[in-house]
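User: structure tokens for this one?
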Amino acid sequence: VDEARNSIQEFHQGAPGFGRYYWHSLVDSVVETTLVEFIVPVATHEDTRYYRLGSGSVVKRSAFAVKRVFVIRNDAGKYTFNFSEIVGAGAAAGISNFYYPSRERTFDVTVESWGLNVAIDAGSFVAREFLPDVMHALFHRKEGLAQVAKPRNASEVDR
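Assistant:
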């Protein structure tokens, strides 16, 4: 979309431009994921896994999912501010200033990138909350992995 809009004119158009847009997007994703899911949570002792609420109204479950952007459990199981999301996404937006053209290194662009990273993660939490329900409604499958046939008695294990 950015290439089609020619939003970063220094990248140009065509195959070389696509390559530049793709490379920058890939690096943005890797840096943000590494900071939000690994470096900051290890330093702050946070558990970044998303645990579904799984029941309640759509509004309640959506609010729960969005709240996870700001509140998360730490390694001790207590709720704490989600430093890994907020600080990690902000740091990733700041790091991107090192490899984008100078016209894209403004405070406004950095804050916009930070906000977009946080909003995308909030949207992914909402998707994680409801996707199992949608899959069940569409395909009538039970949650979880398929059941593996278990032997009836110990003598069947030896065979």
